Amino acid sequence: xxxxxxxxxxxxRQMNELACDDxxxxxxxxxxxxxxxxxxDGIHCSADFVITGQIEAPRQAxxxxxxxxxxxxxxxxxxxxxYLDIDNAYIKAQIFERAAKITKIRERIGAAKLHNxxxxxxxxxxxxxxxxxxxxxxxxxxNYLNAAxxxxxxxxxxxxxxYFIENQGARVISVETTSKFDLLSDxxxxxxxxxxxxx
Length: 199
Description:
alpha/beta; Ybab, Chain: A; 3-stranded antiparallel β-sheet
């Protein structure tokens, strides 16, 4: 796939520009885990992944109001929560449910969670980024693990998502940026049905 090859070349170029031993490649979509592992093997650096899940509005599954990463790290779209008048009890229940699901997925895959990233330069890789909310949850989690800095590389992203993530202070490289928001997938490739045992 041409887009996939382009994504690989962008990642390799960024790895070469960083030219240091403290780089960690982290996949945030299941579709990019094998690519991340393959590149990491080729240049002898660390590779891992972060599992996230989105929080949907009550009775409106097409509306994403937030996302949860591992260790119950979460982010919310406060404007959407206020506009839809969603109560805290619902949000807390959703965070707990998503966090429990993430733990079960991690256990099923059979891989240990990321540990302290102090001093590490992280390249966060996702195939698609529609809203950016799940990537933001992953960013918050990586900052929680003390990553020195984080670069986001997306195979395909909406202009809105790129703008959103850049406004949170992260640098973003999108191989393909589209204004056609509706052409991107809703769930940004989660690990729900992921089978490969990762390193």
